[in-house]
Amino acid sequence: MNRAEKAVLIEELVEKFSSNDNFYITDASGMTVAETNMLRGLCFEKGIEYKVVKNTMVQKALAQLDTDYVPFDESVLRGFTGVMFSGENANSPAKLIKEFRKKSGMVSPVFKGASIDTDLFIGEENLDMLSKLKSKAELIGEVITLLQSPAKNVISGLQGSGSKLSGILKTLSEREN
């Protein structure tokens, strides 16, 4: 690959990183071609883009962004590197990694690090926590449900009490007659 091709690749990566708030860095070394193809197919089904990239290219692309990705240089960008771009759902790649491991019975791909809305998560120990993150839509749905619950209780209380009250008034008026 000549300098011009490298520059184009780095520019593409800069655009990818800047347009995706969430990306995961993995190590899929040791996987067979069939296993890698299975991983790529699963990524395609889930709407996750998976790219295998040289560490130096990733480092140069991340260096051009506003966020400080220096912690990735030290421990994450070593060995074989695959990058998963997830777009809106921050937990999709983590769930995909866990699902792939379960289906294949492997420990690959290894989770090396992630950037979720510019917050950095480094190390395999963060994978479970990241897989349980709720999406923005799920959080909004929970807030709406919580806000609706008291209103529903008040309305049902008023409706229930209203029918009881009218029943009591009817009974009292019948007793007078």
UniProtKB/TrEMBL annotation:
<keyword id="KW-0687">Ribonucleoprotein</keyword>
<dbReference type="GO" id="GO:0006412">
    <property type="term" value="P:translation"/>
</dbReference>
<dbReference type="InterPro" id="IPR022973">
    <property type="entry name" value="Ribosomal_uL10_bac"/>
</dbReference>
<comment type="similarity">
    <text>Belongs to the universal ribosomal protein uL10 family.</text>
</comment>
<dbReference type="GO" id="GO:1990904">
    <property type="term" value="C:ribonucleoprotein complex"/>
</dbReference>
<dbReference type="Pfam" id="PF00466">
    <property type="entry name" value="Ribosomal_L10"/>
</dbReference>
<dbReference type="InterPro" id="IPR043141">
    <property type="entry name" value="Ribosomal_uL10-like_sf"/>
</dbReference>
<keyword id="KW-0689">Ribosomal protein</keyword>
<dbReference type="GO" id="GO:0070180">
    <property type="term" value="F:large ribosomal subunit rRNA binding"/>
</dbReference>
<dbReference type="InterPro" id="IPR047865">
    <property type="entry name" value="Ribosomal_uL10_bac_type"/>
</dbReference>
<dbReference type="InterPro" id="IPR001790">
    <property type="entry name" value="Ribosomal_uL10"/>
</dbReference>
<comment type="function">
    <text>Forms part of the ribosomal stalk, playing a central role in the interaction of the ribosome with GTP-bound translation factors.</text>
</comment>
<protein>
    <recommendedName>
        <fullName>Large ribosomal subunit protein uL10</fullName>
    </recommendedName>
</protein>
<comment type="subunit">
    <text>Part of the ribosomal stalk of the 50S ribosomal subunit. The N-terminus interacts with L11 and the large rRNA to form the base of the stalk. The C-terminus forms an elongated spine to which L12 dimers bind in a sequential fashion forming a multimeric L10(L12)X complex.</text>
</comment>
<keyword id="KW-0694">RNA-binding</keyword>
<keyword id="KW-0699">rRNA-binding</keyword>
<dbReference type="GO" id="GO:0005840">
    <property type="term" value="C:ribosome"/>
</dbReference>
